[in-house]
Amino acid sequence: MSELETFRQDTRNWLEANCPASMRGPIKDEREVCWGGRDFEFFSDDQKLWLDRMAERGWTTPTWPKEYGGGGLSKDEAQILKEEMKAIQARDPLTSFGIWMLGPALLKYGSEEQKHEHLPKIIRGEIRWCQGYSEPGAGSDLASLRTKGVSDGDDYVVTGQKVWTSYADKSDWIFALVRTEPDAPKHEGISFILIDMATDGVSTKPIKLISGKSPFCETFFDEVRVPKANRIGEAGKGWDIAKYLLSHERTNIVSAGGMFGGMNPVMAAHKSGEVDDGGKLADPILRGDVARLTIDALAFEATLQRVKDESDAGQGVGARASMLKYVGTELNKRRHELNMSALGADGLLWEGDDPSDGQSAREWLRSRANSIEGGTSEIQLNILAKRVLGLPGA
Amino acid sequence: MSYVLNEEEQMLRDAAKAYLAEKSPVSELRRLRDEGCKDGFRHAVWRGMAEMGWNGVVIEEAYGGVDMGYSAAGVLLQEMGRTLTASPYIPSAILAATALRLAGTEAQKSEHLTKIANGEAVYAFAIDEAARHHPERIDTTAVKDGNGFRLNGSKRFVACGNGADMLIVVAKTEDGGTGFFLVDPKTDGVTRTMRRTVDSHVPADIDFKDVKLDGDACLSEAEDGTAALAFILQAGSACVAAEALGIAEESFDRTLTYLKERTQFGTEIGSFQGLQHRAAELLCEIELARSLVMKALRSLDNEPSQAPLWIAAAKAKATEVSRFAAAEAIQLHGGVGMTDEYEIGFFYKRAQAAGEFLGDDRYHSDKVASTSGY
């Protein structure tokens, strides 16, 4: 047996023995998603057990180095772990912006001290992180942000407002872009700073969305004292880190797999009875629209695979992350639009006796944000035009 | 199964680029058109391709081929799409060769595959009987007659049909099955009518009236050819999709160059966001089509059970994207894009014709739906 085959067998055995039965199968209730953090209330004992067991092996972050508590797995081993988890429908033990976003930045730009301080807590799900980028006056033009950090001895005194901070009200720490060099040019005056949300002067306020939910907040900083030791990288170099992370985020938004789970238009048509005896969609125009969606979804799946192969062959992902982000999010919006069409009036339900009533409408509404968050579709097209196609100007 | 071209395929691509740039640039298609060529392609180019080994990429070595597989054919066709090379490549080297390979007897393979591989003869594959592609509706019949057959029916828009030396005709047999018949177009009862199409290709409508065929004209007499036909058409569709991808790429490259060169309002027009977004959108569409085409060809070579879905998706997407890319090319070139002098119009025309060939995006979208079970 090759090393990888041995690894697969060992992994399969371990998962079989250690993944609790209730942690297998699709998520049915939002509360079943494990976000971790100081105040996280576990949905069940199994949820906590599953997190602890996986974190113990570093498998909440399979490819992170062992010295910080990560799994230390190779790419191939991580892929096997993923496949074996999928085979038994094991749930993610931990969903975390710390893993998705901050971790990669710390690994690349953080000091040894910062890595040892923060990475283990991310891996074990002890600290929940949120991202403080956008501001009321700085959306697509993110680098025009105005939250300021005034130097005062060993501290920065941070004052300003962030917006669209995902789950800020439930998070323990925030990684934020702060203008620390007011006289420097726009892109060179920004620092990347870690702030404990429990510090005096930090407050949050949820924003209610068209879906009726509040995944985002406004976050306020009123003369918050933050040690300069919490700055990642050099002062004024935060924009580079932000760009690196955004590219990570863009690839993650579409390739993490979460985006294309759940209902699809064929399932929706079965639910609303819009199929004939042979299982064929009854409305030929809808069937055509769904077929076009299937084609683009297959094309997207194949493209993710191809970009991965090319990246392994050394061609890198680079600005093509913008292509994946643009195509993937537009595709997901189309899927939800077709779900709604196939469901008909059933899709319009907002509440009812069944816990799933209203879910389709909420997911449909939520999907509208896909092409705004993480950089709008239009910003992605700008990036492609300039950085991939080499078109001039602006 | 990797999405990156292997070394052999990269070499093939580079060789194709060099050969086609020299022997078969777009200006050559214009010349064929203006000369009123009745075959619609240059025999010298067809023989040149044979010498390079291209005609035998899906033919076994025993019959003079190089047996590299459909992915390699796709690499070649992508380049032929870029240069709008008019040749019997798909009718002969893909459709006829695949039919012979799947259904031919040893003697038939030995004679005809060899001729395809060495470029000695041009084969056409006669399938369609209506203006749109409906391979499930075949009215042409082949009835047993002594030791041979009697063929009756009409085929329409047979690709390379006017210049072909030999036809493979799809017909219904008496038991309701599908058969493939080798027919010399000079046989009594065969009437060819040349059709000139918008892309400067020269297909033919071909009528068969009581055409007497020998017994050995039939491929796979023992077996119903319905499954073989499905595979032949899939192989053809994947290859046309590769050609369409090449058309899209070249239309786009030329447009991009134009956006960087043409100035208006004192600046390159490519600096305007309205045009930049259209270009970026096209880039994404072409990349999506590229992935599907590659997946379709690779699955044909390595995992044929998965191929029908990927091929239908690839043909639908590549058809749509090549039409879109060529249409955008005209619009973004402005007035010059509408002139016959500029070559962009040739791409728009061929995109439409290649899209129609072996089923357009709607035909293949329907296949995607039924293959997916809805």
UniProtKB/TrEMBL annotation, chain A:
The record places domain Acyl-CoA dehydrogenase/oxidase C-terminal at: 236-389
* Acetylation among keywords: no
What is any Pfam family matched here?
Answer: Acyl-CoA_dh_M
Q: Name the coenzymes or cofactors required.
A: FAD
What is the residue range of the signal peptide feature? Answer: none
Sorted alphabetically, which Gene3D superfamilies does this protein's record hold? Acyl-CoA dehydrogenase/oxidase, N-terminal domain, Butyryl-CoA Dehydrogenase, subunit A, domain 2, Butyryl-CoA Dehydrogenase, subunit A, domain 3
Q: Where is the Acyl-CoA oxidase/dehydrogenase middle domain?
A: 130-224
User: Do the record's keywords include Oxidoreductase?
Assistant: yes
Enumerate the UniProt keywords alphabetically: FAD, Flavoprotein, Oxidoreductase
Tell me where in this chain the Acyl-CoA dehydrogenase/oxidase N-terminal domain is found: 48-126
Family, similarity comment? Belongs to the acyl-CoA dehydrogenase family.
Q: What is this protein called?
A: Acyl-CoA dehydrogenase family protein
Q: Which organism is it from?
A: Hyphobacterium marinum
UniProtKB/TrEMBL annotation, chain B:
Keyword 4Fe-4S applies: no
Acyl-CoA dehydrogenase/oxidase C-terminal domain spans which residues? 231-369
State which residue ranges cross the membrane. Answer: none
Q: What InterPro entries does this protein map onto?
A: Acyl-CoA_Oxase/DH_mid-dom, Acyl-CoA_Oxase/DH_mid-dom_sf, AcylCo_DH-like_C, AcylCo_DH/oxidase_C, AcylCoA_DH/ox_N, AcylCoA_DH/ox_N_sf, AcylCoA_DH/oxidase_NM_dom_sf
The reply on keyword Aminoacyl-tRNA synthetase is no
Q: Which CDD domains match?
A: ACAD
Which keywords label this protein?
FAD, Flavoprotein, Oxidoreductase
The Acyl-CoA dehydrogenase/oxidase N-terminal domain extends over: 6-120
What are its cofactors? FAD
The Acyl-CoA oxidase/dehydrogenase middle domain sits at 132-200
State the family named in the UniProt similarity comment for this chain.
Answer: Belongs to the acyl-CoA dehydrogenase family.
Name listed for the protein in its UniProt record: Acyl-CoA dehydrogenase
Species in which this protein is naturally found: Hyphobacterium marinum
- Give the lineage: Bacteria, Pseudomonadati, Pseudomonadota, Alphaproteobacteria, Maricaulales
